[in-house]
Amino acid sequence: MSANRIGFLDRCITELDTALRVSYAQARTSAANPADDTPPADAELSATERDFSARLMRVNHSGEVAAQALYRGQSLVTGDLALGQKLLKAADEEHAHLAWCQRRINELGGRVSYLTPLWYGGSFLIGIAAALAGDRTSLGFLAETEKQVTEHLDGHLQRLPTSDKRSRKILEKMRDDEINHGTKAMASGGKELPEPAKFVMRCTSRIMTALAHKI
């Protein structure tokens, strides 16, 4: 067996391990939580508001699961080593977002989506498909994903209860990071996706959002 094939099999095992940890373990990160300098004011939230915030953060947690899987799937099959490293770096930042969301969900007394393994597995396969379409398309897909995520986060920031400042801090930092990811993707040679592809992405996102909010 060639060294390249052994190396690829090792990476596949690593990705399986990552998938299991993201799907079933408490996410951890060394990145500073943007909400740490914001005193808790959860006592000011009514039970209805706490539940609503927890559900919004569950949707965002599911989105970060999907984003991380997309980038890792793209990284696995791209032939460009430098691009692969950039994608892994973006995935690490998404993992930090994941950990912040999960911690906030715990604080609010909520739970993550029961469909987390499905979000990860499906997104990982989509990432592979995007990468197989070519690096420029892969980068364009990344940029469009981040654009739609940014719009989604803007919507959540408008809907959050006023007193939920900790969730707001997290979402604001996530939004800034997503904008940065998208800008870098296009600057690295990303190709604008055709409108039908963007439409399918939006429809898929809406289905995922609706399911994650409830399940």
Report on the architecture of this protein.
There is one protein chain. The chain has 215 residues and is an all-alpha fold. The protein has one domain: Ferritin, core subunit, four-helix bundle (Ferritin, Up-down Bundle). Helices cover 77% and strands 0% of the residues. The protein has 7 helices and no strands. Helix 4 (116-132) runs antiparallel to helix 5 (135-159). The chain starts with a helix and ends with a helix. The mean pLDDT is 87.
Q: What keyword list fits this structure?
A:
215 residues, mainly alpha, Ferritin, 77% helix, 0% strand, globular
SSE layout:
Layout (H helix, E strand, L loop, with lengths): L2 H22 L22 H31 L3 H27 L8 H17 L2 H25 L5 H23 L7 H20 L1
Helix pairs in contact: 1-2, 1-4, 2-3, 2-4, 2-5, 2-7, 3-6, 4-5, 5-6
CATH superfamily: Ferritin, core subunit, four-helix bundle
What's the CATH architecture name?
Answer: Up-down Bundle
Shape: globular
Measured as a percent range, the helix fraction is over 70%
CATH class value = Mainly Alpha
CATH topology: Ferritin
Low-confidence stretches: none
Termini, distance in Å? Answer: 44 Å
Q: How many structurally independent domains?
A: 1
Largest β-sheet summary: none
Can you write the helix and strand succession as a string?
HHHHHHH
Radius of gyration using CA atoms only: 17 Å
Determine the mean pLDDT: 87
User: How many helices in DSSP terms?
Assistant: 7
Q: Hey, roughly how much beta strand do the residues contain?
A: under 5%
Broad structural category: mainly alpha
The tally of strands reads 0
